UniProtKB/TrEMBL annotation:
GO cellular component, one term: plasma membrane
Function: NDH-1 shuttles electrons from NADH, via FMN and iron-sulfur (Fe-S) centers, to quinones in the respiratory chain. The immediate electron acceptor for the enzyme in this species is believed to be ubiquinone. Couples the redox reaction to proton translocation (for every two electrons transferred, four hydrogen ions are translocated across the cytoplasmic membrane), and thus conserves the redox energy in a proton gradient.
Keyword Nucleotide-binding belongs to the record: no
UniProt source species: Trueperella bialowiezensis
Region (Disordered): 204-225
Residues annotated for [4Fe-4S] cluster 1 binding in this entry: 77, 80, 83, 132
Gene: nqo9
Protein name: NADH-quinone oxidoreductase subunit I
Length: 225
């Protein structure tokens, strides 16, 4: 009966055996570990002195998230939860609210009433950004994400929503007259209209954004054409 059991050959000791060193190499063995130290000791320091000196990130660095607005101040988030479903770390929590004529926060029927990102879970993969249908959610280069407690690392809508830019009108307020949510998505709305400003002045005369809101009538021309 023949023996068909596979046999493994012994490795060639010249290739896989211990390295043979000469007498000088053996003599230097105890200090060989300092070779890298001595070869770099006189090179310029490359340690970044954060937080005393902040070095800019790469342009496409994935940092803190932001919830964006349209040019008239309405929020881009429509509370669809697609970002939360796309998140592999289950770091996003969204609760949608219904827009009403007296409380319109975003174009269309719904807005993001509760929005939270748990930065103890987030791995900055940006899947949420890619899932967002309205470009409401984007990421900045900001890497200074801290919190005093575990709860403090859960950023809510107040921390994520961008402040009003110059000329914007604080929501809630109606959509620009004669527009649909599709006009907003196409970028046809370029600022608050006089009718929107008048509505806020009538319903919230103390709203601080009234002082700086600038009426824009460009969107009417854009939508009409
Ligand atoms: S960047 Fe990734 S892990 Fe962080 S919230 Fe978005 S989808 Fe989730
Ligand atoms: S951020 Fe975008 S994907 Fe997430 S709920 Fe808002 S609109 Fe939907």
């Amino acid at each position: 009966m023949s023996d068909n059991t596979p046999r493994f050959e012994q490795p060639d000791p010249a290739l896989y055996g211990p390295t043979k060193k000469g007498p000088i190499a053996r003599f230097l063995n105890p200090v060989a570990g300092f070779g890298v130290t001595f070869s770099t000791i006189f090179r310029p320091t490359v340690t970044e002195e954060y937080p005393y000196k902040k070095v800019p990130t790469r342009p496409r660095y994935h940092g803190l998230h932001k919830l964006n607005r349209y040019a008239d101040g309405l929020e881009k988030c429509i509370g669809c939860e697609l970002c939360a479903w796309a998140c592999p770390a289950d770091a996003i929590y969204v609760e949608a609210g219904t827009n009403t004529p007296q409380a319109q926060f975003s174009p269309g029927e719904r807005y993001g009433k509760v929005y939270q990102i748990n930065y103890l879970r987030c791995i900055f993969c940006s899947y949420c950004i890619q899932a967002c249908p309205t470009r409401a959610l984007t990421m900045t280069n900001d890497y200074e994400i801290t919190g005093p407690t575990r709860e403090g690392m859960i950023y809510d809508k107040g921390e994520l929503l961008v402040p009003l830019a110059e000329g914007m009108l604080n929501p809630p307020h109606p959509m620009a007259e004669g527009t649909t949510d599709a006009d907003y998505y196409r970028g046809a709305v370029t600022g608050p209209t006089q009718a929107q400003i008048d509505w806020v002045a009538e319903n919230r005369p103390d709203d601080p954004s009234l002082k700086t809101a600038q009426a824009s009538d460009r969107q009417e021309a854009d939508v009409a054409c």
